[in-house]
Amino acid sequence: MESRLDRIKKQLHSQSYKLTPQREATVRVLLEHEEDHLSAEDVYLLVKEKSPEIGLATVYRTLELLTELKVVDKINFGDGVSRYDLRTEGAEHFHHHLVCLECGAVDEIQEDLLGDVEKIVEERWNFKIKDHRLTFHGICHRCHEKAES
């Protein structure tokens, strides 16, 4: 985790930002809960456990800055709540998600499945793609297995 934190610090410095103690506390929470797709409020509550002096507005500003600098991606799974997801290091694109309509679980697909689709869109519509997001809504394997048994 420390090496990843150091790389994020360098990424901020390259954009003329510092990794302040408040920003570091927020980034540490995101790193510790990388699989959880936390909302700003979730991040705030976890940050507050370790650093009670940090306010909600500071966490919001930090998350927005990290989104702007492409350290995290801001995502919405259709439930009206913005969630924050650390961008996979070295990934050319945002990863994909599987959202279960039964239990609400969110699973990730790290493999980029849209290479061919991007080529078609770029050629057919003369559209230069910078990124893409794909979310599948359905029934997860856990709920499917429960229903079958």
Total count of helical runs of at least 4 residues: 6
At the first level of CATH, what is the class of the largest domain? Mainly Alpha
CATH architecture of the largest domain, by name, is Orthogonal Bundle
**Span between termini:** 40 Å
Number of folding domains? 2
Approximately what portion of the residues adopt beta-strand conformation? Answer: 15-25%
Order of helices and strands: HHEHHEEEEHEH
Could you name the CATH topology of the largest domain?
Arc Repressor Mutant, subunit A
Mean pLDDT: 90
Going by CATH, the homologous superfamily of the largest domain would be: Winged helix-like DNA-binding domain superfamily/Winged helix DNA-binding domain
Low-confidence stretches: none
Strand order of the largest sheet: 1-3-2
Describe the secondary-structure layout.
Layout (H helix, E strand, L loop, with lengths): L1 H13 L6 H12 L5 E2 H11 L5 H13 L3 E5 L5 E5 L9 E5 L5 E4 L5 H11 L9 E4 L2 H8 L1
Parallel strand pairs: 4-6
Antiparallel strand pairs: 1-3, 2-3, 4-5
Helix pairs in contact: 1-2, 2-3, 3-4
Could you characterize what this model shows?
This protein has 149 residues and is an alpha+beta fold. It folds into two domains: 2-86, Winged helix-like DNA-binding domain superfamily/Winged helix DNA-binding domain (Arc Repressor Mutant, subunit A, Orthogonal Bundle); 96-148, Dna Ligase, domain 1 (2-Layer Sandwich). It is 46% helix and 17% strand. The chain has six helices and six strands. The chain has helices at 2-14, 21-32, 40-50, 56-68, 115-125, 141-148; strands at residues 38-39, 72-76, 82-86, 96-100, 106-109, 135-138. It has a three-stranded antiparallel sheet. A three-stranded mixed sheet has the order 5-4-6, with no helix packed on it. Strand 2 and strand 3 form a beta hairpin. Helix 1 packs across helix 2, helix 2 crosses helix 3 (40-50) and helix 3 crosses helix 4. The mean pLDDT is 90.
